[in-house]
């Protein structure tokens, strides 16, 4: 079945450093989404990528969708303490299942 | 703007007891999902529904049943709770190929 893996599982950075999390699917995806979950909260949608090789930016966040539509990445430039949380990718295959990755917990030290 | 509402928010069950978690959405979304979240394991899909009257199994369906009798409601049932079902449960709803909206979660402890 469809599986989505993320690395790293945990990342600790100093405020101002960059951060990247990577997402890999075992199957080709129709689209990929990214979510952020603050401690004690629920996942909140950040963005959706649909096209092969697509790159989107939201302020300091850059999202990429791989050419084969099986991998994706989220890069944060110059992290801030407000970036703390767990970042999840979520992939949709042919069956409309929305499968989440294992998540990357980001800790930012001031 | 209620969005997705889950009830209850917290529950403690004894092993072998049964319970139903209710998810209600007011956005007229076709798709609804139930996930469980455990430390280090992300969000794992239990069951999902692509429309009223339809349900399908996700990644970890054993020990759970679901029903979608009305478009706005998606119920998750535990017939005989086990300690391994201690988790945080999230419901989500979405239109086809769009963002998912999540409820606030239900923290369930089975003792």
Brief overview:
By secondary structure, chain A is mostly beta strands. Chain A has no helices and 11 strands. The mean pLDDT of chain B is 96.
What report would you give on this structure?
The complex is a heterodimer of chains A (110) and B (111). Chain A is mostly beta strands and 110 residues long. Helices cover 0% and strands 55% of the residues of chain A. Chain A is built from no helices and 11 strands. In chain A, strands 2, 4, 5, 9, 10 and 11 form a 6-stranded mixed sheet that branches. In chain A, strand 6 (55-58) and strand 7 form a beta hairpin. With 111 residues, chain B is mainly beta. In chain B, strands 2, 4, 5, 6, 9, 10 and 11 form a 7-stranded mixed sheet that branches. Chain B is globular, with a radius of gyration of 13 Å. Chain B has strands at residues 4-7, 10-13, 19-25, 31-37, 43-49, 56-57, 65-67, 73-78, 87-94, 101-102, 106-110. Chain B is built from no helices and 11 strands. The A-B interface holds A 1, 6, 9, 30-31, 33, 35, 42-45, 48, 50, 88, 90, 92, 95-103 and B 31, 33, 35, 40-45, 48, 50, 56, 58-59, 90, 92, 94, 96-105.
Helix and strand topology:
The complex is a heterodimer of chains A (110) and B (111).
Chain A: E1 4-7, E2 10-14, E3 19-25, E4 31-37, E5 44-49, E6 55-58, E7 61-65, E8 71-76, E9 85-92, E10 98-100, E11 104-109
Parallel strand pairs in A: 2-11
Antiparallel strand pairs in A: 1-3, 3-8, 4-5, 4-9, 6-7, 7-8, 9-10, 9-11
Chain B: E1 4-7, E2 10-13, E3 19-25, E4 31-37, E5 43-49, E6 56-57, E7 65-67, E8 73-78, E9 87-94, E10 101-102, E11 106-110
Parallel strand pairs in B: 2-11
Antiparallel strand pairs in B: 1-3, 3-8, 4-5, 4-9, 5-6, 7-8, 9-10, 9-11
Pick out the low-confidence regions of chain A.
Answer: none
Structural class category of chain B: mainly beta
Shape of chain A: globular
Strand content of chain A: over 45%
Kindly name the structural category of chain A: mainly beta
Segments of chain B where pLDDT lies below 50 for 5+ residues?
none
Radius of gyration of chain A: 13 Å
How many distinct helices of chain A?
0
Number of strands of chain A: 11
Written as H for each helix and E for each strand, in order along the chain, the element string of chain A is: EEEEEEEEEEE
- Radius of gyration of chain B, in Å, reads 13 Å
**What value does the average pLDDT of chain B take?**
96
Helix content range of chain A: under 10%
Name the largest protein-protein interface in this structure: A-B, 25 and 27 residues
Largest sheet of chain B: 7 strands, mixed
Helical fraction of chain B: under 10%
Determine the mean pLDDT of chain A.
Answer: 95
What is the percentage of strand-forming residues of chain B? over 45%
